[in-house]
């Protein structure tokens, strides 16, 4: 009975137009953050410093005039998106679509994915609040510190290897979703179009490759007991820069993240909610 009451309350919330619009704004905010990451990455080959991850994007916003206000807006939009993903975890994907059936293994996968995304959005929103209050922290430094702590125990190393496998899996799914154009299933427009489809392919593929690289580096960090390799997205991007033709790879990664950022604005307008 309590479950039915909770489901009813959550469903009523997802039928709220203001809630849906706030969640859609979260996509736009994600787009801005990915464009800022692309900006940071494209400057790396030319000697500029910066963290090529969400914390670097938030720090860039914080340094601008009115940055604190912008960061509070970022936090608000991401909280709305986190709550929407939480609703999807309870009701199934696209809860605003009436009469949609939610069952089977794909539904379980979608609910788990939505729950994970809810945590990610909530975490970035919390980071935005900290940056707005002047207490922001680099994700790479935090990840390195956490990796160093976990490397001190055998169970911690096992946890790191599991996390690496999950990250690689997420990266692989992004690449698959991009190359197969499966992302078009998330849109209310059919066929994608001459602009939307290329943005989705480039964005999902590039982000997936970098995420996969972060997972591989986390495995290396665990096997070599080198916590600096477990710094996350920033370490993966900068490792690309150290490879042969690193400058070209970084520019390509920046273009991919910019494409994903642009695609987020497509989601803000045409995503199935």
Automatic annotation (TrEMBL):
Record bears the keyword Membrane: yes
Coiled-coil ranges (or none): none
Pfam families noted in UniProt: DUF1206
Keywords attached to this entry: Membrane, Transmembrane, Transmembrane helix
TM stretches of this protein: 21-42, 62-84, 158-176, 196-220, 248-270
Keyword Transmembrane helix: yes
Record-given protein name: DUF1206 domain-containing protein
């Amino acid at each position: 009975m309590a479950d039915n009451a909770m489901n009813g309350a959550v469903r009523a919330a997802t039928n709220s137009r203001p809630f849906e619009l706030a969640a859609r704004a979260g996509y736009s905010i994600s787009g801005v953050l990915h464009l800022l990451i692309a900006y940071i990455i494209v400057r790396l080959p030319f000697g500029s410093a910066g963290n090529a991850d969400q914390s670097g994007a938030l720090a860039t916003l914080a340094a601008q005039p009115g940055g604190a206000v912008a960061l509070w807006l970022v936090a608000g939009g991401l909280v709305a998106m986190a709550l929407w993903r939480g609703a999807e975890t309870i009701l199934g994907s696209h809860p605003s679509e009436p009469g949609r059936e939610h069952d089977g293994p794909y539904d379980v996968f979608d609910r788990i994915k939505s729950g994970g995304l809810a945590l990610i959005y909530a975490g970035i929103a919390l980071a935005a609040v900290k940056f707005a209050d002047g207490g922001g922290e680099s994700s790479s430094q935090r990840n390195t510190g956490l990796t160093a702590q976990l490397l001190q125990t055998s169970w911690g190393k096992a946890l790191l290897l599991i996390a690496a496998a999950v990250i690689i899996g997420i990266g692989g799914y992004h690449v698959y979703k991009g190359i197969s154009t499966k992302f078009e299933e998330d849109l209310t427009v059919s066929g994608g179009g001459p602009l939307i489809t290329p943005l989705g392919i480039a964005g999902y593929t590039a982000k997936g490759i970098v995420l996969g690289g972060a997972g591989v580096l986390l495995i290396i960090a665990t096997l070599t007991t080198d916590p600096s390799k477990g710094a996350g997205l920033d370490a993966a991007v900068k490792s690309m820069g150290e490879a042969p033709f690193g400058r070209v790879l970084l520019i390509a990664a920046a273009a991919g993240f910019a494409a994903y950022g642009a695609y987020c604005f497509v989601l803000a307008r045409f995503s199935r909610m």
